[in-house]
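Weekly modeling sync, notes
Attendees: S.R. (lead), two postdocs, one rotation student

Agenda item 3: backlog of single-chain predictions. S.R. asked that every request posted to the team notebook include the full sequence so nobody has to chase files. The rotation student volunteered to paste the first one in as an example of the format we agreed on. Action items at the bottom.

Example entry:
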Amino acid sequence: MQTIRFMQQKVQQLYTEKLVRGPCHHYTGQEACAVGIEAAIDETDHLITSYRVNGYSFTRGVSVREILTEMTGRRGGVAKGRGGPMHMYAPYFYGGNAIVGAQVSLGAGIALACQYQSSDQISVAVYGDGAANQGQLFEVFNMAALWKLPCVFVCENNRYGKGTSVERASACTDFYKRGDFIPGIRADGMDVLCVREATKFAKDHCRSGKGPIILELQTYRFCGHFVNETSSYRSQAEVEQQQQNDPISRLRGQMLRTNMASAEDFQNIDNEVLEEVEAAAEFAVSNPEPSLDDLCNCVYHNSPSLQVRGLHPWAKLQSVDKR
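Predicted structure, as returned to the notebook:
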C-alpha cells in the first residue's frame, strides 16, 4: 500500500512538471482495495478494472518502473509508451478501461471463458459507484446469474462519480444489493484485512459453482477525480475527516498495537519504497520515447506484417507483432 501511495505522489509531481500528459486518475486512499483483493485471489485468477488503474497494475505484478515509464509515454513502459496513465496490462490482468462500465461486460466474458475451459479460475471485474447505473451492468448481471459464471463483481464505492455524490446519482446506494438475483456483501474498503477476508469469501462462493457475487467496498479517494482537479463538490473538512481513516495508518496502528512490527520496521519500509520510486522516476523521464516506426506494431496478435494508414492517405505505417 505504501508503494502505491508513494507512486501516486511521484505521479503528482511528474504531472505538475508536464512529464505526464493526458487524463490521470489517482488511487490515493483506496489502496486497501487493490492490495486486499490481490491477497485473497490467486496469481492465475483474472482481473479487469477501470481507468483508475495504477494500483491494480502494481498488485498484478507490473513494476513501479514500468508503471511510471508508461505514464511518461516512454519505450520502457508496460505498454511500450502507447497506453499512458489509463491503459496498462499484465498476464491475467486486462488493464484499465476508459469506457465507464465496459470492463464489467468484459469481465463477465472472461468468466465465461473460465467456465467454458473448465478451469478453477475466477474473474474479478472492478468498477466504481459512478458506473453502477450503467445499463450494461444489469444485462451482465442477468447473464452471469443465468449461466452461474465464476465472476466477482467488485464495486469500489468511493462516494463520488467524478464530482457527483452517490446520493445525487443513485436512488439506491446499497450497491451490493443491485444484483437483485445475485447475492452481495458489503465490506470496509479502508481496512485491507477486511477486504482480504471478504474477497476470500466471494472467491470461494464462485469456485463452489454457486455463480457470481457482488462485493461492495466502501472506500474514499483523498484526491480529486483526476490529477490537479479542483474539488469544489466536497469540503476540505470532509476530506480531512476521511483521512483520519487512512488505510495505511490504520494497518500500521494495528500492527504496532499487536507488536507485529516496530516503528523502525515501518521507517525501513518507507525508505526502501521511496528509494525504489525515485529510481523508477529517474528512469521514466530519461527513457526514450517510442519511434514513429514502432507506433503501429502489435496492433494484431500473431499477425503477418500489414500496412496501416497514418493521419492522411499518403502516410503509410507498418504493423508487426514484435512482442
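Discussion: group reviewed the output briefly. Residues 308 and 317 are 5 Å apart (CA to CA).
Action items: rotation student to repeat for the remaining queue; S.R. to check formatting next week.
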